[in-house]
Amino acid sequence: MEFDPRDRAVYLPTTGTLVCADFHVGRDAASDVEFRVGEHDDLTGRFERLLERYDPEEAVIAGDLLHSFDRVPTGAAATVRTIADLAGERDCPVVVTPGNHDTMLEELWDGPTLPEYGVADGSVVVTHGHVPPAETAECYVVGHDHPTIEIEGVRRPCYLYGPDQYRGSAVLMLPSFSKLPAGIRINERSAAAFQSPFVTEARTLRPIVRDEAAEKTHEFPPLRELRRFL
């Protein structure tokens, strides 16, 4: 599957699909900190720049658009509305595949929602990744675990790609689009330590790190080969 990773999202050029996972809107307001950290401007600004760069035919939010389970934090409605408006201004339909955090989704989102979204001919299925899929696909694009990798003492968000990861199908796991969750450190993590059932053999996953400052994408060998250097 051809894909272009950028700014914690991924673009599928063959179908013109932009995929983001884990916005966790409201994470800022739900945090036990005195000062807010600019969640609204960060999420909406970066999403807008992705729309401007790719002019996608469609966008899919692969779960956990919201953060809180039982309430709508201050400012969350405005952020969700802005995300929808930015896509609408470009005639880009948006589908949400709800995640485990999206228990309040109906309160804020009136657009289409599907547990799993098949892209184009259905060879690629986008879903949050917290439960096993109902649909079969050649490749699954998921979020949920917020993968990060530590290299030379610096922890970076990363994508994980496994060509034969779930019942013979490829899996592409995205980092959290929100910069607030710490994420899981994958350096020594086994498949059993992942929360997503889509990860069945961690050693075959290939980390991909996008350096936005340098505008470079670094693709690493599978973890079984990489771990001795970390």
From TrEMBL:
Q: Name one Pfam family in it.
A: Metallophos
Protein name, per record: Probable phosphoesterase
Origin organism of this chain? Answer: Natronomonas moolapensis (strain DSM 18674 / CECT 7526 / JCM 14361 / 8.8.11)
Q: Where is the Calcineurin-like phosphoesterase domain?
A: 18-132
InterPro entries assigned = Calcineurin-like_PHP, Metallo-depent_PP-like, Pesterase_MJ0037-like
The UniProt entry, under SUPFAM superfamilies, shows: Metallo-dependent phosphatases
Write one Gene Ontology MF term.
hydrolase activity
